[in-house]
Amino acid sequence: MHMADALLSPGVGVTMCAVSTAAIAISAAKLKKDELEEKKIPLMGVMGSFVFAAQMINFTIPATGSSGHIGGGILLAALLGPFGGFLTIAAVLLIQCLFFADGGLLALGCNLFNMGAIPCFLVYPLVFRPFLEKNLTAKRITIAAVLSGILALQLGAFSVVVQTLASGIAELPFSAFLALMQPIHLAIGIVEGLVTAAVLNYVKQMRPELLRNALRREKLGAVSLKKLLLVFVALAVFIAGAFSFYASSYPDGLEWSILGVAGTTELDANGGLFSLAARIQEAIAFMPDYDFKNVEAKGLLPGTSSAGIIGGLMTFLLAATTGLVISLLKRKREAERN
User: Fold this and answer.
1) pLDDT tens digits for 201-242?
2) Element housing 7 (H / E)
3) How far is 183 from 163, CA to CA, in rounded Å?
4) What is the phi-psi region of residue 63: left when phi exceeds 0, alpha when psi lies from -120 to 50, beta otherwise?
5) Full-model pTM
6) What domains can be seen in the chain, in order of their start residue?
7) What 3-state class would DSSP assign to 179?
8) Cα 222 versus chain centre, distance
């Protein structure tokens, strides 16, 4: 559901960038105040890498000619809380946009809102957490994850349609675009929910304290996360390095919907701001579309695997560094109080 710049007007793009920047600032402030435990800092990095790798795996939606990938917002919120989850998905989307040209630079604010703010700040606190707060069982985790995955994707898809409507994109009439976006993202949401449920049920078996920490703010205390972290590191490396070869080549749900309405997956974007954003992204993105920019380098190493490993490492560093900086500021604040 990564939006391209051509789907937005400059006004909508800039406005949503401001909204998402405010959400990042508020999340950082909340974590600095009272929600971030130091042992969850490496978890932010590792789960960011895992989601980055998982998003590279597009799965085919049968009988549609379309594909989808997980968003990861509900998963991250369930393990890190809504604020830590949002900052981590923000790190994923920022790395994807800047260095792999996945999603437009002007559209980054919309992508942060649709794939991060909606699941973390709306679906997680209103649907996922209330369903599990009193009784944390495998069955309830599965139901909560599937319902939340569906709702997050439906609201995210609807938000995309509204943003294109507000932008005046004539090639994507509201009713026709909506009629394709919602059902295809219903199918994607079901898969996302099942994947999220599988991961969370595994975490429940390994470290149920982690889920209770996010749900009820129970302290982790002396609980060790090392084994769990190693498992997700291994999964991220395997998914990005090997499993990514088997990703579906069909257009994703958003591209498929655009193709069905406009007859093409690529709309024109004209204007100074669009050109500036494109030039900046082209200069920074060293592996656009998850492949080597240099033609000579393409035959040396598999581009997709290399992009997955490099992107996962960059996401780990950004997410973990974000958590570390917040933790240091929190400690400084507490020291000044004392």
Assistant:
1) 999 999 999 999 888 777 887 788 999 999 999 999 999 888
2) none
3) 18
4) left
5) 0.94
6) 5-337 (1.10.1760.20)
7) helix
8) 30
